[in-house]
Amino acid sequence: MTEELKQSPSEEVLLSIRGLKKSFGSHEVLKGIDLDIREGEKIAVIGPSGCGKSTFLRCINCMEDPTAGSIFFEGVDLADMKVDINVHRQKIGMVFQQFNLFNNLTVLRNITLAPVSIAQKANRKRKVRNFFRSFLNLFRKEKKPLLPVRKSADIRAEAEKRAFELLERIGLSDKAEVYPSTLSGGQKQRIAIVRALAMDPDVILFDEPTSALDPEMVGEVLDLMKKLAEDGMTMVIVTHEMGFAREVATRVLFMDDGQIAEENMPEAFFTRPQSARLQDFLSKVL
Amino acid sequence: MQRIWDLFYQQFITYGAYREVLEGLLATVEIAVFGLLIGVVIGTLIAMVKVMPKYKRLPRVLSGICTVYVGFFRGTPMVVQLLIGYFVLLPALKIAADAVTVAIVVFGLNSGAYVSEIMRSGIQSVDPGQLEAGRALGLTFWKSMFSIVIPQSVKNILPTLGNEFIVLIKETSVTSFIAVTDLTKAFRAIGDANYEYIIPYLMLAAVYLILVMLITLGIRIMERRLKRSDRRA
């Protein structure tokens, strides 16, 4: 209990998942999951393969549409099909097992594509509204002020500056102009993390970020994730790296058969597993 | 042999049959090129509909229409489509159009059905993770498609599109059914004049062969270019 008080951040709830279910055809993968994720928490999700942990993660930002249940993020239920999911995904970063860097774009463009195109889209919308406003202002006594509009080149320059800062942080600024096919797995994954960071997300979802890496490259990716954790980023990490989960996570979930079978603070989780199923699992992987 | 050759020469040069051959060559190339262009436009539209997410009703209705369209144009012979277009639709709709125009439109509609499949499979052969990564960053489906997926699918699509062009070039030989003077008809007329078909038909085959070889060469150069862009550092 004292451990819980010490480790759990007192910040407000960022993501609130209620009764989340997901079926593929007649096969029910997630059988009702409830979870609150507070700001600054680092949640590690472990479990045997096929238990639904990746599906769970992919449901959080609706990469898979939940069959039932709700996901509250900033007061909005993401599972509601009427919600414009794209707006909210901008604040939920995701890092994939296979990196998924855009093969047709340079590293720099990989990082800036989303920030630039989203900012430019908002800019275009403001321009259109300004057009109507200035037209209607002709007939108004009290003129409405025009919305601020930025130059397209400025938006790009700003995004590139930020991208270079981030690349500098991971020591890969010399790779800005190369294509992903020339990078090592570890470099790709670190750039994928930076790409997610460029959107200034409130939470980042990691889907087995080190599983596709050669062993000697796992370290560099985990180090970057540790730095992120120290900076206070909220993280949900599906992983097989037990040591990492124990060291970095503030809470560890054990998923089994589409449900959260056990959850605890990392120390207690690994040293005093409660259920027989978790004891069995840990004895196999540790 | 000398007699056959003289007869051909007489027909081809002296009686001016070469003019028809050139006209036929022009018609053949014209029908294939414009047919392919129309086909690419229609095929792209259908492929877009096919790969769209199907949550809402509109994409599902559009997709149904496209399935019927592709089914019709792939399920009936091109000759039949030409005959229907020229002898049924043209009089019924009271449109004044010449046979070449009808052939171009029918070839375009027909190849649209095939090109749509080429494009769809080209788009779907791109790693789905690419689209997912774009969507996860908050980009819309279309933005992810146009900035990430489609540029990567071009490499898969272009060579197959070249094949479709070859097919179209050869298929133009059936346009004589609706009285288009294409290559085949022009050479057949030369043979018909003296009932000597050896030289005209062998030559006809040679002309098609040269056309196709030229296109093949073009495709190969294109492929090499695309491969080079794979290795760019």
Give structural notes.
The complex is a heterodimer of chains A (286) and B (233). By secondary structure, chain A is α/β, with parallel strands linked by helices. Chain A has ten helices and ten strands. Chain A has helices at 2-7, 53-60, 85-89, 107-137, 152-169, 185-197, 215-230, 242-248, 266-271, 276-285, and strands at 13-24, 27-38, 42-46, 68-73, 76-77, 92-95, 203-207, 234-238, 251-256, 259-264. In chain A, the strands form two sheets. In chain A, strands 6-7-8-3-9-10 form a six-stranded mixed beta sheet, with helices on both faces. In chain A, strands 2-1-4-5 form a four-stranded antiparallel beta sheet, covered by helices on one side. In chain A, helix 6 packs parallel to helix 7. Chain B is mostly helical and 233 residues long. Chain B has one domain (2-232): Orthogonal Bundle (MetI-like fold). In chain B, 83% of the residues lie in helices and 0% in strands. Chain B is built from nine helices and no strands. Chain B has helices at 2-14, 17-51, 57-75, 78-93, 99-124, 128-136, 141-171, 183-194, 198-230. Chain B starts with a helix and ends with a helix. The relative contact order of chain B is 0.15. The mean pLDDT of chain B is 90. The chains are: A alpha/beta (286), B mainly alpha (233). Chain A binds chain B through residues 61, 63, 81, 86-94, 96, 98, 100-105, 113-114, 117-118, 178-179, 181-182, 192, 195-196, 199, and chain B through 55, 127, 129-130, 132-140, 143, 147-148, 151-152, 230-233.
